[in-house]
Specification:
By secondary structure, the protein is mainly alpha-helical. The chain is built from 12 helices and 6 strands. The chain has a two-stranded antiparallel sheet. Strands 2-3 form a two-stranded antiparallel sheet.
């Protein structure tokens, strides 16, 4: 293929690029949102159980790659709505995420003292560079799901922000016990009277109330809510990242017997079913599966 042919096939505008990404995600929903999280759960559990040799065990590149693939439906779904205001808001939230994580690692506030036990990729001052990819989509997924579930009640700012913050906190009820069981991070300096939830101190959830509130307000101010709802209405894959979350972290918690987090993950699954986001098109096998040539 000549250089001119290649240039002719490349999108010539932002709209064409967005349409091409939509088609790519839509045509690979099963691979992205079922195949990847199922395999991710198996690989992470196998790593934690010392069943995988180096360099496969907790391979940072595979973790970041898998996370980016599973995030792609959300990223592609939101991309057409990224105005200058939205970009500035997400940028500010990214800076906040790094700052609050650095504060947590170095001072123990607001989550409690913890340290990373698994290499999650390059770090700066002890904070993984990929942190925004791990954190911000969790908040956006909760925000979008709650907009759909609340309906007209989402117009009330206090109701909207309160429910979304609670949903983000519920996501950490699923995430943190699974991550601690895997050894992603570990809490210390807990004290003999520390109250733990599957190895996670309750102070962590108090910290998440702070982080979630700031993040939810930032995203709420950054994006046009009506535009988000319109995009959600015509983009069936936009919450597939939340499907991946339920499969990945629900499966990991089930393996380790963390049944309350499993139940909370299942509640998110019920929410997806209620909003018709876990539909037959998602479960339809692609013509060419990843393991076939």
């Amino acid at each position: 293929m000549s250089a001119s042919d290649l240039r002719a096939r490349l999108p010539s505008s932002r709209r064409e690029a967005e349409d091409a990404l939509d088609r790519l995600v839509r045509d690979n929903r099963f691979t992205i949102s079922v195949f990847f999280p199922l395999n991710g759960a198996v690989l992470l559990v196998a790593s934690a159980m010392d069943w995988l040799p180096d360099p496969l065990a907790f391979n940072a590149f595979l973790i970041l790659l898998g996370t980016l693939v599973m995030r792609s439906p959300l990223i592609v779904g939101v991309l057409p709505l990224v105005t200058r205001r939205a970009a500035l808001g997400v940028g500010a939230l990214t800076a906040y995420a790094y700052a609050i994580e650095y504060t947590g690692v170095t001072t123990g506030w607001p989550y409690g003292w913890f340290h990373y036990g698994v290499d999650l990729g390059p770090t700066v001052a002890g904070v993984p560079v990929g942190l925004p990819v791990f954190f911000i989509p969790l908040v956006m997924n909760a925000y979008l799901l709650c907009l759909l579930l609340l309906g007209d009640r989402a117009r009330n700012g206090a109701v909207r922000l309160g429910v979304v913050t609670a949903a983000v906190l519920a996501m950490d009820v699923v995430l943190d016990p699974g991550a601690v069981a895997l050894g992603f991070w570990e809490y210390y300096r807990l004290g003999d009277d520390a109250l733990l939830f599957y190895g996670v101190p309750l102070s962590n959830y108090a910290g998440w109330v702070v982080s979630a509130t700031v993040a939810v307000v930032a995203l709420d101010r950054s994006f046009d809510r009506e535009a988000l709802l319109a995009r959600l209405d015509r983009t069936e894959f936009m919450l597939d990242d939340l499907v991946s979350f339920v499969i990945l972290w629900g499966g990991i918690n089930a393996w380790f017997g963390n049944w309350i987090p499993v139940a909370v993950a299942a509640l998110f699954g019920v929410g997806l079913l209620k909003t018709d986001r876990f539909d037959s098109r998602l479960l339809r096998l692609p013509r060419r599966l990843p393991w076939r040539s």
